[in-house]
Amino acid sequence: MANPLKNIEFFFIFLILPSVIFFLDSSIIVFLTLYLVFTLSLVILYFDKTFSFNSLKKKVDWKFIIIFSLIFLSLSFFYILLVDKDLLFIFPKTNFKLWLLVILIYPFLSVIPQEVVYRVFFFQRYFTKKNSFYFLMLPNMVVFSYGHIVFNNVHAILITAIVSPIFTYAYLKKSFLTCIVLHSLGGQIIFTLGLGKYFF
After folding, report:
1. How many domains does the chain have?
2. Residues 6 or more apart from 158 whose CB is under 8 A from it?
3. Strand, helix or coil at 200?
4. Cα gap 184→163, rounded to integer Å
5. pLDDT in single tens digits along all 200 residues of the chain
6. Residue 54 to residues 95, 153, 170, 179, 192, Cα–Cα distance (Å)
């Protein structure tokens, strides 16, 4: 990121915006800002001659998804038992219709915008894939987890910091669609088990 304007842009999108939203403490503003940055990212990517949306069409690695989904399911189950076992399955048990709606729309209204902004736009705009995975993973983990301060709890930050390297690996080493499916399943697991209260 040698370009000063890109540096300013980077810090504004990934650090200043989450900080401002944190103090505003509004779920509506959280999602409106996400969609605004998502739209801006798509526009910039569209006019980037070095980027092709066709690169996002690589096939899904289902074996990778199954392995890490099972790991995440197990860890999330034990995590919620440690944090508050009364939350276990509370969402589907208390409001099944809303839970089902969230499960169905979550990939489209939350995962896709996040992955375009935090993976596709992030790496295309500010970094080069020629760098080592660890060099790319660390700043992405920082901004992705920091972005979740908008939910005003440590659990959202901790969980996203843990899963961010996996999402980054899925995107860089597998495919965008692999990352989307994995992120979607991860979120659906969180909402189903009861940790969703920390992400809304």
Report:
1. 1
2. 145
3. coil
4. 12
5. 568 889 999 999 999 999 999 999 898 999 999 999 999 999 999 999 999 999 999 999 999 999 999 999 999 999 999 999 999 999 999 999 999 999 999 999 999 999 999 999 999 999 876 778 888 899 999 999 999 999 999 999 999 999 999 999 999 999 999 999 999 999 999 999 999 999 98
6. 39, 37, 17, 16, 33
DSSP alpha helix (H) spans, the chain: 4-11, 17-24, 27-46, 62-84, 90-94, 96-106, 112-115, 122-126, 133-147, 154-169, 176-193
Are 175 and 61 within 8 A, CB to CB?
Answer: yes
- In degrees, rounded to 5, the angle at the alpha carbon of residue 119 between the alpha carbons of residues 118 and 120 is 115
| Cα gap 138→117, rounded to integer Å | 16
- Rounded CA gap, 70 and 67, in Å? 5
Domain of 182 in residue numbering reads as 4-199
Rounded Cα distance between 126 and 6, Å, is: 7
- Dihedral sign of CA atoms 44, 48, 53, 56 in order: negative
pLDDT in tens, 49-65: 999 999 999 999 999 99
pTM of the model: 0.94
Residues 6+ away with beta carbon under 8 Å from 95: none
